[in-house]
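Something for you to look into today, if you have time. I want to see for myself how the chain folds. Leave the record below and I will have a look.
***
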Amino acid sequence: MTTPTLFDLAFTLAAPFWALLILAPGWRWTDRIAASPLPMVPVLAVYLALAVPVFPQLWAAVSRPDLAGFQELLRLGGGAGAIWAQVIAWDLFLGQWMYREARELSIHPLVMGPLLLLTVLLSPLGVLLFLPLRAAARRRLRRPDPTPPWHPAPTAAGQHP
C-alpha cells in the first residue's frame, strides 16, 4: 500500500467509531465498543506500516526531540503519515475515555456530541473543554443530599417527628 493510501486509511478506520460515539450514545454496542481498546488496533497497524520504513528518522526525532528533527521527519511521507496515524489513534483513545466518563457522570449526549466532534478535529481543545465539564459533573454527583436517609424529613411545621 502506498503512503498516501495508508495516510487516508488511518482516519477512515477510526471514523466509524467516532460516528458511534457521537451519533449513537447509549446504544449497547456503542458502550461496549467504547470500553474496548480494540478500535485503536487497526489504526495502530497503519501506524506501524508507516513507521517501520522510517524508523531510524522517527527514533532520532523522538529520542532527541528538537524542532529540526521533527521537521525532517515530517518531510518524509512515511514520517508525516506515522505521526498522523499516531494522532488519530490517540484522539480515538481520548474520545473513548471522554465518552465513558460522560456516560458515567450523566453528561447529556447533546453536550457531548459537539464536544466529541471538536475532539476529533482539535483534540487538545476538546479535552480542555471537557475537563472542567467533567469536574463540575463529578462535584454535582458528590453533593450530599440535604436530608440524610437516616434522618426523618421535617414536618410541615418544621419540626422533626
User: Anything to note?
Assistant: Residues 40 and 90 are 8 Å apart (CA to CA). DSSP finds eight helices and no strands in the chain.
